[in-house]
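Example record for the data management plan.
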Amino acid sequence: MNFSKQQQLFIGLVLAALMAITRSHHFATVAHLPDISWAVFFLAGAWLVSGRAFVGLLALAGAVDYAAINWGGVSDFCVSAAYPFLIPAYGSLWLAGRWFAKRYSFSWRALPLLGASLLVGAVFAELFSSGSFYFLSGRIAEPTLAGFGASFVRYFPYSLVSLAFWMGVAALVHTAFAYARGAVRNHA
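Corresponding structural encoding:
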């Protein structure tokens, strides 16, 4: 996945815009797309070379959350002592994207690597984000490992569905651009 600096800038701006548009809503509805944040951090890890993009996307996520809570009427329920753990959560996805980028090839053989890197990144992201919220937020009266396990099983599939949706969109866009650039050879 070799993109010029100009292409990386464009990709970064598109990812940032999509995150700003979708992040302020907690659940997808007919009027609102699912949150793209997890996919953005994975894709930024895979497509963008600079670590500054990671820092910029973290800052954007915080700014969007701040604006959504202070001016958009979104509840601040999820903002707690656990909020800083979004850094390693998103970092897990970023690193999973970096790992995949080093092994990427435009072929069907890359799909198991993509799936594995997405799943590992998503599991760690969920453990950091939901685990920290469950144990550190003060919102759970008596946190236990069994209770967290039940919470993980209940909520993680929703995160995977959003991630899968956006990664499917990204795969289609990536494939279309690869064909348009003539970068696709006869891969099977």
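Summary line stored alongside the record: The chain is about 70% helix and 0% strand.
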